[in-house]
Design goal:
single chain, 99 residues, 3-stranded mixed sheet, 5 helices, 12% strand, binds zinc ion
Length: 99
Amino acid sequence: MIYDITFSNELVNEAAVNSKNDYGAVTQHNVLRILVREDLALAMQKKVLLHEILHCCWPESWVTSGSYFEDEEKLVTLLENSLFGVMCDNPDVFRWLMQ
Ligand SMILES: [Zn+2]
């Protein structure tokens, strides 16, 4: 599926209005849209966007029940941090993969 990516503080705040968390980004699966705060540093925008992309992959994965499903946020955060580091440290590998 193709998600639209929008950079907007206002839309992130509106989407997270009922949450106590301070979100850097929010994914709206029902309208295929990822909202990213525009006031984040560029590196943080990239990191939170990767985090949301991993959330978007989740429903497409084989993990639909059990403890893995319940631990989605933990696993997405783990993957985000490790994958973002690998991508930043090895840009040539990822360019090669995309060819
Ligand atoms: Zn998350």
